[in-house]
Amino acid sequence: MKILVIDDDAAVRKFISITLQRKKHCVVEAENGKSGLLLLQEHRDISVMITDLIMPEKEGIETIIEVKKLYPAIKIIAISGGGKVSPENYLVIADALGANTTLKKPFSGQELMHAIDNL
Questions:
Q1: Per DSSP, what are the bridge partners of residue 51?
Q2: What is the tally of structural domains in the chain?
């Protein structure tokens, strides 16, 4: 399965990518929603998007809205460690806007794979 990982934190992207690659998934990485949307245009075979919610350039909530409109078949996992409010508040919003599942940072590789498997 080809998975797009969007997070402005390089360490988080690397953790997610390595975890997914160990399970034989193909991973494409972006540092914000803007570059993530460009990658979706290039890689039409992406079936899952994992996106952080608090990022520069184009944040995750806006990215989710656009992806649901432009690529409705893509499954979305929203992740957040929070910001000015608790991560749960952001994740509730992401869920309401169409994310298929959410994960609160920090999460384990096992939790990530469980979320992938449940899509």
A1: 6, 78
A2: 1
Q: pLDDT tens, 58-117? A: 999 999 999 999 999 999 999 998 665 566 788 888 999 999 999 999 999 999 999 999
Domain CATH code at residue 93: 3.40.50.2300
Find the domain containing 68 and state its range: 2-117
DSSP 8-state class, residue 9: -
Question: Strand 75-80 vs strand 26-30: parallel, antiparallel, or unpaired?
Answer: unpaired
* Burial (CB count within 10 angstroms: exposed 0-12, middle 13-18, buried 19+), residue 40: buried
**Global confidence as pTM:** 0.94
Which of 57, 58, 77, 67 lies closest to 5 in space, CA to CA?
77
